[in-house]
Write a structure and sequence with these properties.
globular; 495 residues; three-stranded antiparallel beta sheet; 9 strands; four-stranded mixed beta sheet; 19 helices; alpha+beta
Length: 495
């Protein structure tokens, strides 16, 4: 009994010593860090969103040092506080920070998608998938978006007839719209979520972003320690997603090959890559990699745009003068184009572009960008060496709300994104789509999808606050992506 007690005490002492050592990692390197140790950090992370942690570091150390240290559980993170260093990490010294994560989980079929992929396959994937999102492809996709938007407007009009108070939850409606857009334009599939909120694609999308209230704390643990957790059978993604997207591959990709169907869309590009061979005679994309790309383009494509539209409508409802300016622009441009929404008409709507950018500033999809040091890296103009494998966080939301960059940062002011205003700021002061070689590949498509949706809504309806509209929109505590936590309730009236 005494021997076991000694062993237990020894293990606890060793564990305490290890945690103590880890909690002083940044101090040992001469990098300022939050005073709370790892044990306190673990306790706090059970009660706050990680967004609050980045903000706390930013507020305490910004202007004093180009970077500071903190911890996610026992994992040390370097938090970048200087915009020139942001530029170095994302662009100038990108070769030293190509990966986002350190623990790829090869047994998860869906893990090697473009967002997660490590440097061994990322560059090839990015190069081969980029042609999907050229301006020429956007023009080709545009009519399909317009058709879906017409169905959206008709369905919303019908729903309003059954709602005497005209109070609608717009986050769900916008999600149904963008789900159908992605299904039609990217997958070549009719999802029918606008007409049927219980459609299969819609349910999969909701599950991916918190409908079943997954534990974000557990998600953080998985992201930090997947290298160890995989040995006890933990998976990064719920198997339901794997089964669903492998079925889509069989039902859509293989069916197109059997029937020799060509639609010049995203699926066609994936089929082409699947049938190409690399230098070793292997397919450039396996069926599993095809499923992984379909997964990320679906979940990222529908959610980021639907959130952007929902947050935008919320801000426009609270600022009716801005809504009037936008509506006037939309109506004037449409009139010039015989009241037809064309690609050229959309591109003329400069204030709409500013509205979307300002919405992304206030409500970015990601609170921070993560990178990993691929080699020892000396922070420019300092003696600080970031060791290979160090996790780096760029606090997007904290930068977007910095009053030294954006005056009155809590106010919705689309005019901040007039060309002259943008030119006056540091180029990395806005990171709504990331930056550098690993920025959002679907940037053009995401903006186009949100624009078509907002044009269709603003030209047909007026949005205003109602008793169910909160003064501040809280983000979901169940999702890594910053999405509305309790919906976006607005009063919707026909024009």
């Amino acid at each position: 009994m005494n021997i076991w007690l000694i062993i237990i005490c020894a293990v606890l002492a060793a564990l305490y010593s290890l945690i103590k050592s880890k909690s002083s990692y940044w101090q040992q390197k001469g990098v300022p860090q939050l005073d709370n140790g790892i044990l306190d950090n673990i306790r706090r992370l059970t009660s706050i969103h990680n967004t609050d942690l980045w903000q706390e570091v930013y507020d305490k150390f910004k202007g004093q040092t180009p970077l500071a240290g903190t911890y996610i559980y026992t994992r040390a993170f370097a938090v970048v506080l200087d915009l020139e260093l942001v530029k170095s990490v994302l662009i100038k010294d990108f070769h030293s920070f190509t990966d986002r994560f350190t623990n790829p989980h090869s047994k998860d079929i869906l893990n090697q998608h473009l967002f997660n992929a490590d440097s061994t396959i990322w560059k090839g994937l990015r190069t081969k998938l980029t042609p999907t999102f050229t301006s020429g492809k956007m023009r080709f996709m545009f009519p399909s978006l317009v058709e879906v938007s017409k169905s959206y407007v008709a369905s919303l009009q019908a729903a309003l007839k059954a709602k005497p108070d005209h109070i609608m939850e717009m986050y769900d409606w916008n999600g149904r719209f963008t789900t159908d857009v992605i299904g039609s334009v990217i997958f070549g599939i009719e999802c029918n979520s606008i007409r049927d909120p219980n459609a299969e694609f819609r349910k999969i999308g909701q599950k991916a972003f918190g409908a079943d209230k997954p534990n974000i704390k557990w998600s953080l643990v998985k992201n930090m320690y997947m290298k160890y957790l995989k040995y006890v059978g933990v998976r990064r993604f719920d198997p339901i997603f794997e089964r669903f997207f492998l079925r889509i591959v069989n039902d859509t990709v293989l069916e197109r090959e059997r029937r020799n169907i060509h639609r010049n869309d995203f699926i066609d590009i994936l089929i082409e890559l699947k049938n190409q061979k690399d230098e070793n005679g292997n397919p450039v994309l396996s069926l599993e990699l095809v499923a992984a790309q379909l997964f990320v383009f679906f979940v990222a494509g529908f959610e980021t745009s639907s959130s952007n539209m929902s947050f935008g409508l919320y801000e426009l409802a609270k600022n009716p003068d801005k809504q009037d300016i936008l509506r006037q622009e939309v109506m004037d441009v449409l009139k010039k184009h015989n009241n037809q929404l064309t690609y050229e008409a959309m591109m003329e709507m400069s204030y709409l572009d500013q509205v979307i950018s300002e919405t992304l500033r206030l409500h970015p999809a990601l609170a921070f960008l993560q990178r990993v040091c691929m080699e020892d890296y000396q922070v420019p103009d300092t003696d600080i060496i970031l060791e290979k494998g160090t996790a780096v966080a760029i606090p997007v939301k904290a930068i977007h709300y910095d009053p030294d960059i954006y005056e009155n940062p809590n106010q919705f002011e689309p005019e901040r994104f007039e060309p002259s205003e943008v030119q006056s700021r540091h180029p990395q002061s806005f990171l709504g789509f990331g930056d550098g070689p690993r920025n959002c590949i679907g940037l053009r498509f995401g903006r186009m999808q949100a624009k078509v949706g907002l044009i269709s809504l603003i030209s047909n309806f007026r949005f205003s606050v109602c008793p169910k509209t909160p003064k501040h929109l809280d983000c979901s505590k169940h999702s890594f992506v910053l999405i509305p936590g309790k919906g976006v309730w607005l009063k919707v009236d026909h024009l």
